[in-house]
Give the backbone structure.
Amino acid sequence: MDNSDIEVEEDERPVIKIPGSAHRVILHFDLDCFYAQVEMIRNPALRDVPLGIQQKYIIVTCNYVARERGVTKLMSVTDAKEKCPELVLVKGEDLTHYREMSYKVTELLLSYCPLVERLGFDENFVDVTEMVEQRLAEISETDSFSFKGNVFNHSSNQDANIWLAIGSHIAAEMRDAIRSKIGLTGCAGVATNKLLAKLVSGTFKPNQQTVLLQENVGDIMGCLSGLRKVPGVGHQTAKRLQALGLVSVKDLQLYPLGDLARELGATTAQRLRNLALGIDESAVTPTGAPQSLSDEDSFKKMCSVKEVMAKIRELLGSLVERMHKDGRQPQTFRLTIRRFSATNKWFSRESRQAPIPGAVGQKIVSGNIEDAVSQLVPLAVKLFHKMVDSNAAFHLTLINVCFSNLQSRGPAASGKGAITSFFTQSASPRKSQISSTQNQVIMVFNATLFTQNAGSRLLDHQISECSRNVPPKGQMTCNSEQSEENYEASCSTEGINSDKTKPPPHVDPEVFRLLPEEIQKELLSPYYLNSLQSHMSKHEPLGNDSSMKADRSRMNHQQPAGIRVINEENVMEQEKLSLPRSSDCNFPGNVDPEVFSELPPDVQKELMSEWKQQNPVLKTPSSRKTGKGSISKSKDRKAEGRSSQSNNLLKYFKPG
Ligand code: TTP
Ligand code: MG
């Protein structure tokens, strides 16, 4: 859309015409006081008392009884107790029950409609346009229709919108089902896009729903107290806009688009302008099963290896249990730490990853939890020592353990069936599936390189499918599935590129949307795509094309936590390292040779024999077998000039 779509009336309130989107019907669901409701279901005695859910020293949420007495979300425990001395506190650091309930709700919504997108633990978008069309086809012309629930700023002379009216009935049915089948109440918003549905769903709380008619879009946008209230405008964006003198939504609506484009680039400018006008054409993207499972804990100070080991063991205990319930077999283990930093408290994470021996993976799948944990702890400790010199003083504030590269047999956990396969918590042992993905070079975002933008916070959060992280007073807690920035991802609003820009193969589209514009451009550059293509043709077996495609699509769907690209340059980087090598078995590309060399000999042996048997599909170029010195001269190595572009790109990633 350009400026011609916006007409400014005399009172300067823009009238918005949205081409083609008037007939989309999007629902947004947000459960009421979610963690508190889950606890009230678990213990009905808590229903009528003021209840606060405590994580460390913060009340992350409280029931509506407590809210009536002045307790609010994110209040400190001390303040909450002061406001309401009879407040009952329940610890909410273990997310297991919240997660389970959360997926039940998504699953229930999916039983109505395939277009369901999760946003955090307690929010879902549903695109019910097709359902509305079907119902519309069944309605005879004489049928009267009405809205269910509230209508935002309703006045009697407004034109009724039959699409949204039917949507409101569907929303009511879905809310009824969530209440009767799961026992949870929640709010819903009904509008023509995700942004508006989210904005309107919270206007009447709790346990209510609201429709937003097109003619009231300007009103709801005008009600927002500042730009930061626009879903999709993150902290950093708001700061940049403020530097231009833009504070209110109206400021942004009226700021000359050309000037904004000069400051922020055309795409960002247009995206932000659209947001301010309530325009959001992003699709409801069905959520698949998680691409990685992780658990983490934050603390003020951890400075001994003993403590680190104990924490790793504790985190692995619950993670392995969850992984077992999931049913897939993880191929890769990643350890992330955060060192204390006075200036860069939340985002300076470092990670190392290593392959998980098949036997250990199978123990997870078969439910031999204790053995699996015992074998994973030394692996994690090795990774830890790769990052931290324990002979010197260290100060950690967070540890995260993560399983990724999750392999399942049968229908791929991607696309439509993905989430269902995640719910089916099969405990049956599954044979490890060897796929091309296992042998691809895996690169993980180095969150520290993105420390100053909100997109990086998202990535940082996304890395954790679950988090017990609680920041200091006043800060939003960092439950990765429950961060405001998640909406930025979901709506692709904080990200610079357009939703319509297709990522290159092997790059998670969601992650791609969040990348800075220059990185996107680089990934889309002919050089990069050519090198990707030549890499693929060199390293993928022709006869196995369909299975490779399936794996690839699964990989893309399953990896919101980071980005995986095949990058020839990185293969070469890895080759430069001096490695312990077997003459007849190459390392798969995702193996950090240094980590490998530090693994216990029996684990090394096991991995070597596995790789040997697997006869990796994606071998590194033939130069791998040459000596260390010859690698940089390898004919596969791109000429200096050409490689510089890729090296530029590499600086944004950190090899796993
Ligand atoms: P919200 O939907 O923001 O809050 P809520 O569902 O508790 O209450 P409301 O009725 O106002 O929607 O968040 C969902 C859950 O996420 C919440 O129950 C607790 C958790 N949460 C955090 O872990 N950290 C946070 O900073 C916030 C705001 C919520
Ligand atoms: Mg909620």
Summary: DSSP finds 28 helices and 18 strands in the chain. Residues 30-35, 60-61, 73-74, 121-122, 205-206, 476-477, 479, 482 surround thymidine-5'-triphosphate (ligand 1) (CB under 6 Å). Residues 26-33+94-223 form a domain with the Alpha-Beta Plaits fold (CATH 3.30.70.270).
